[in-house]
Specification:
This protein is mainly α. The protein contains 6 helices and no strands. This is DoxX family protein.
């Protein structure tokens, strides 16, 4: 059964994940992220395959959100990647992505909250039965 309560959020997040995931596949960003960042911070020699796995997971998650299959699994994997990104990349830059700073955590935090909302469209209270 389709959950129309989250349709708009699922579409928008799918677009964001597709663009974010696929852009790096065509502009060498994935290779740079794997070789020049992940390998350098201790993931060598698996930095490049890990970078590709992350980007491919974004594309797969986008598809899952659009067809409304495996939504919770897709959200959980994406949330894990976003949280890891917060601590490895964005946190040292502060809160703001633009404006008051750059490359901060605010966008990741927003996406995490939206993904949790998609996972639990009736709210956490009903899900946990508090």
């Amino acid at each position: 059964m389709r959950n129309n309560n989250t349709l708009l959020l699922r579409i928008i997040v799918a677009i964001i994940l597709l663009i974010h995931g696929m852009a790096g596949m065509f502009n060498n960003g994935v290779n740079d992220f794997g070789n020049l960042y992940l390998n350098e911070v201790g993931f060598a020699p698996i930095g490049l395959p890990l970078a590709w796995a992350i980007k491919i997971s974004h594309v797969i998650a986008a598809i899952c959100l659009l067809v409304e299959k495996y939504v919770k699994a897709a959200c959980l994997v994406t949330i894990a990647i976003l949280i890891t990104g917060i601590f490895m990349v964005h946190l040292p830059h502060g809160w703001y992505v633009v404006g008051g700073g750059s490359n901060g955590v605010e966008f990741n935090v927003l996406l995490i909250v939206v993904l949790v909302t998609i996972m639990f469209p009736d709210g956490l209270r009903k899900t946990i039965k508090v």
